[in-house]
Design brief:
- This protein is an alpha/beta fold and 179 residues long.
- The chain has a single domain, classed as 3-Layer(aba) Sandwich (Rossmann fold).
- The chain has six helices and seven strands.
- The protein has a seven-stranded mixed β-sheet with strand order 3-2-1-4-5-7-6, with helices on both faces.
- Helix 5 crosses helix 6.
- The chain starts with a helix and ends in a 7-residue tail after the last strand.
């Protein structure tokens, strides 16, 4: 995404969040608790990141991952401005987040899954950074629920455990062959 598109998207998100407090109702449904380690994969300008950081509290950690350098810069700016000590931005290279394996209690991939060219490789990376009992919170974005579910099932890395109106909760599939 070119820089001007990213800046425009950020402006639109700010306006939407100002006039429609959707995120404040949505995020508590993710089940994130104090002390957890959460990866906000595809964090964009950090609109979920800051809220997730507040949920996990000072004993938790949020990794804000994105492939766009402007996203990482935007998150760093927010972290600095708000004095958050529990957020670490990470620039991904392709599907490689650069995070250690087995670090996440919760992985959030919100409003970005539809734009992933290779869903299986992407979901493999999310599984790699997840703990064995982790949860993936993922939404359809701008694709049908059926299409999102099919991509998840076809990957062989995650299984759906719960579906709500606006997101899916998935658990990693661990087998002796795929582990």
């Amino acid at each position: 995404m070119p820089g001007y598109e990213f800046r425009f998207m950020t402006l639109i998100f700010r306006l939407v969040d100002l006039f429609m407090p959707y995120l404040e109702r949505r995020i508590p449904k993710f089940g994130i608790r104090s002390g957890q380690t959460v990866v906000d994969y595809g964090c964009g300008p950090g609109r979920y990141t800051v809220r997730l950081a507040r949920l996990v509290g000072p004993s938790g950690k949020v990794y804000a991952v994105d492939i766009h350098e402007l996203a990482i810069a935007a998150v760093r700016s927010q972290v600095e401005r708000l004095g958050l000590t529990n957020v670490e931005p990470a620039l991904a290279h392709g599907y490689d987040s650069g995070l250690p394996a087995g670090i996440a209690d919760v992985v959030c991939a919100i409003d970005m899954f539809f734009s992933v060219p290779d869903p299986t490789a992407f979901l493999a990376e999310l599984k790699r950074i997840a703990r064995p009992d982790a949860v993936l919170i993922i939404d359809d974005g701008h694709q049908s629920r059926r299409e999102a579910r099919q991509k998840i099932a076809d990957s062989g890395h995650w299984r759906m455990v719960e579906a709500s109106r606006d997101h899916l909760k998935c658990a990693p599939i661990w087998t002796s062959r795929a582990a």
